[in-house]
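> @MW can you paste both from yesterday?
MW: sure, first one:
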Amino acid sequence: MCRGALATWQRNATQSALHQEVVVSEQILAFDYTEAGSGPAILFLPGSFGTGAGWKAVLGHLGDGYRTVTTSLLGYGSTPDTRPDGNATMAQQVDLIDRIIDRIGTSPHVVGHSYGGLSALVHALTGQRRPRSLLLVEANPLGLLRSAGDLAHYAMFEAMTRPYFADYARGDAEAPRHVIDFYGGLGTFDSMPPKVRSYVVATAAVNVRDWSSGTPFEPSRETLQSIAIPTTVVRGADGHPAMRRIAELLHDAIPAARLVTIDGGSHFLPSSHAAEIAAVIRQHVDGVPTT
């Protein structure tokens, strides 16, 4: 794992994008919204502890010819968290994505990293606004391991989340180290600059809601086979074994899905391998027939 690239990703996570406001049930729901360029629309969904700024390096390599939209998911950046403690669901995240697509005004190609990839996947299955295609970068629907009967890899997640939740519940400010080190390797949390580490600590409650909302999602193979849009699944060759297995299961179940493995990459591919991810996005989007 490239420590410098991870630090850049997390530093970008502390930046905020522009605001877009819509009326929801007589309340104002604000969400981060930054748009640039023209061409096929691409919506970028960041992972936990991140904002739309986390895609900055990828966008720098993507080139012209695309209408890019970045945002932040619930609780990150300037997007408020509408999920109550103890009752966080993916439905609330799906609703946010629907509203962002309404703002875009057309069906975008949706690119999601980590929890953003999980959110994109659930939205493709249950959302009201159909995406043009999916590109899932190190997506983490860990419940897929349970539904596939791969309890050994699922137990790897449990071995991390169990002490994470316990440490968080007892007020340990450094509880997020369990998550960061799980994905980035032992010592990654300690290697972060103090300002970046403070942001991760400050959004721990949001991340706990991410886990509590995403973990119950256990799609069957038949459910994933209903995805009828072009899909590319991306994983890091040096990523966590459980994450590599999830990518395999997604590729095997989603019809005509393409699996791309980034050599030398781990979990934080949008920062550590921005040029390679941009190339995959170009190939994916340019290969989808226009309608």
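MW: second:
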Amino acid sequence: MNSPGQNGKAAARQEERHRLVTEAVMAAGSVAIEDLARMFDVSVMTIHRDLDRLETQNVLRKSRGVATALPSSTVESNDAYRRSQQRDEKRALASAALEFIQPGHTVMLDDSTTVLPLLDMLTTKAPLTVASNSLSVINGLVAAEEVELVQLGGEFRAWCNAFMGQMTLDSIAALHADVLIMSTSAVTGNACYHQRQDTISVKRALIAAAESRVLVVDHTKFERRALFKLCALSDFDHIVVDSATPESTIDGLRQQHGSVTVAPGAN
């Protein structure tokens, strides 16, 4: 019988293998299941179980002995998987974005997981009012002192743990915030893109309702593609990127935009 310690180590190994399998398949586009078993020195049955788990998360698909990627460039991953990606980078981005918030501000946060590390930091800027369509944001701040919450309700979407639809848009239109902190799925050229039109409608409404707009994106967003154009980079007053972002990308952003902050400590 395995001890709790052994079970914990096995679970950690499994989680790490899931991450590595995901990276391998996304990098190649598709990989034979037998090749994955050899690559990670496990049985074909174990890889099948791994892929079953990842398939339920809308990360990968398996068919006829092949695992195929469903990356964020074509399908937005579910909330739990998105939270697990680039954790260190997101915390560094949040710390840098905090500098644009002042006590007394009304702050809007979108439903991106990139903004979630900011929740633990916001009390240092209290008193604040925080408005969001994200249930994760509201739940994360419900016990925070001197932080008033405004839930931008509507039709609940489980994939992102957030509210969308006309009711949400109407709620946003009734407000005017001092600052918006938000992210996006992909940045290509001079524009932000997203895979889902319902999300785009909400993000555009948030942009229109804020006095100052801050875009926070880690380096992977510049490597992805998404179908629908959300907005121009010029719609933001400030852009915050992580330190793993290539210098050429940062230089290009500064030439086009000017106000670009590189968050330290994410490497």
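> thanks! The radius of gyration is 20 Å.
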